[in-house]
Design goal:
Blueprint (H helix, E strand, L loop, with lengths): L1 E3 L5 E5 L21 H12 L3 E5 L10 H6 L4 E4 L9 H10 L4 E5 L13 H13 L3 E8 L7 H11 L3 E6 L16 H15 L8 E4 L18 E4 L4 E3 L12 E3 L5 E4 L13
Parallel strand pairs: 2-3, 2-9, 4-5, 5-6, 6-7, 7-8
Antiparallel strand pairs: 1-12, 9-10, 10-11, 11-12
Length: about 280
């Protein structure tokens, strides 16, 4: 038995899996791309009904995707920043402005960069300065591993001094390419230690100048987290498969299908135990 969701609340559209880097912890498990014009139309359709975000992998490899950001009224974009090291960086900066992007979210994994095979810290910091000097607000997304969880204070200080407005920490998730990186994830005690230090470091900054966030519930440490898996909240891939969570794309089956007329068709009887979730 299936049903139609006429009242979605939040949709993430994954534009592309094309990327100019190969991070070891990438959670995207599919390999496909939206047609930019079709993505723009879908983003425009759903943005009149709910909150819509466009994501991954590296959308700035095809600047036509920025039309979908504008249609979704999305002011931020996730990128690894490498496009800003190319000769056509000025064109990219111009296209961001033209499509209403004011905030760029870069990945900076600090001491874990080598293990995660992510963009080198010095390059991230160069791009950070470039973006800020061109009037963009910069945020960092940082994966927390056994290599960098003790360094939260110095990493936050570095980000703040560079002019970054926000840093958000994500526990290393054993999904996608990171399935076998269990040695670098945090134990429960390490997570508690990190969370306590995070609370202490937050006190050092005025939130209006620099905010420190964390994704997920850090293995049950926080009581403020609520899982929205399949509860009017979806991630949609270019093959129009609907997933209940952005992190379930790699290792859980889809829960429905986006029809050609943009109808959200969901399979009935979705079963997912959020309390045992290993995704966040």
């Amino acid at each position: 038995m299936k049903y139609i969701d006429n009242k979605p609340e939040y949709i993430v559209l994954y534009a592309t899996t094309n990327c100019n880097h190969k991070c070891s912890h990438c959670f995207l498990g599919h390999s496909m791309n939206w047609d930019p014009d079709e993505l723009e139309k879908i983003a425009e359709y759903f943005s009149s009904k709910c909150l819509v975000h466009i994501n991954g992998a590296e959308p700035l490899l095809d600047l036509r995707y920025l039309k979908a950001y504008k249609a979704a009224k999305q002011k931020f974009i996730f990128t690894n920043g490498l496009v800003f090291l190319k000769d056509n960086a000025e064109k990219t900066l111009y296209s961001l402005r033209e499509n209403g992007i004011t905030e760029v979210r870069l990945s900076h994994h600090f001491q874990a960069s080598s293990t995660l095979n992510s963009v080198k810290p010095n390059l991230v910091e160069f791009v950070t300065k470039l973006l800020i000097s061109n009037g963009f607000e910069v945020h960092y997304n940082s994966t927390v591993t056994s290599e960098n969880y003790k360094c939260i204070e110095e990493n936050c200080e570095l980000a703040y001094k560079l002019g970054v407005k926000r840093i958000k920490f994500f526990p290393l998730k054993s999904i996608g390419r990171a399935t076998h990186m269990t040695d670098f994830g945090l134990t429960f005690d390490e997570m508690k230690s990190f969370y306590k230090k995070l609370q202490d470091v937050r006190e050092q900054y005025d939130i209006s100048d620099f905010s420190i966030k964390v994704s997920g519930d850090l293995a049950g440490i926080s009581d403020k987290f609520t899982c929205t898996y399949g509860n009017h909240s979806y991630a949609i891939t270019p093959d129009k498969q609907i997933h209940g969570c952005v992190y379930s794309i790699s290792n859980l089956p889809p829960i429905g299908k986006l029809l050609d007329d943009c109808t959200i068709m969901i399979d009935n009887g979705i079963s997912h135990d959020c309390k045992k979730c290993l995704l966040i």
